[in-house]
Amino acid sequence: MENQEKVQAPVVFRRRISRPLPARTSEVLHELAYGDGVRITFKDILLGLRHRVFGFTMLVFALPCVLPMPPGIPTVCGIVLALIALNLIMGRRRLWLPRAIAEKSIAREDLRRIVDRALPHLQRLERVCRPRLAIVTEPVGKVFIGLVVLVLGVLLILPIPFLGNIPPAAATAVIAIGVSERDGVVVLIGLLGAVVAIAVASAATWAAILGLLKLF
Fold first, then answer.
1. Does residue 7 register a pLDDT over 50?
2. Which domain holds residue 67?
3. Is residue 96 part of a domain?
4. What is the pTM of this model?
């Protein structure tokens, strides 16, 4: 019996089929918080978010600052939010973040703690969310959203006294949910909250300045 030459089959690189994206932002957060591994990188969080990437990333970096945080964390979150805002202003379809930020990781336990506290409020808000007022979340609207989030990000970077970082973070979180769920009404509510946050931050800063002047 003659030896037959073995023909090696070519290697075919198939596109990996990803799991269906969960229907709501709260479900995405829950899956990430209770996934495998001790730590998770921001790059892993961003992969596969599709149309949610801008809103969801804003939410991830706004949520920690909705609660009182030690110095440093609001600054880092504010810088990232400002970068996301610049992406929106420039009309980018894909989110760009520096490698130094994308490869940073957070302990899964810390993420769970943040998600567990935010999830009930997020789920209540999602019950009223639905795609509407598309003009607010379309490219032109996103430029304006980017300008507002840029201001809110700068406020988070600044050392505003009297828990002054919480209102900008809360307003950003509401805007982020609206963008993620494509709900223009929720985005408008968040923008109204941004006006309040800017006013509160300005008042807190002015009060601190007056207090310092009285010491001299």
1. no
2. 25-215
3. yes
4. 0.75
Is 5 within the bounds of a domain?
no
* Residue whose token pair is 């336990």: 109
Can you spell out the DSSP letters for the chain? -PPPPPPPPPP--PPPPPPPPPSSHHHHHHHHHTSSSSEEEHHHHHTT-GGGHHHHHHHHHHHHHHS---TTHHHHHHHHHHHHHHHHHTT-SS----HHHHT-EEEHHHHHHHHHHHHHHHHHHHTT--SB-HHHHSHHHHHHHHHHHHHHHHHHHS--TTTTTHHHHHHHHHHHHHHHTTBHHHHHHHHHHHHHHHHHHHHHHHHHHHHHHHH-
Q: pLDDT, tens digit, for every residue of 186-215?
A: 999 999 999 999 998 888 777 777 777 777
**Contact predicate 89/147, CB 8 Å:** yes
Within 10 angstroms of residue 54's Cβ, the number of other Cβ atoms is 25
In a domain, 197, yes or no: yes
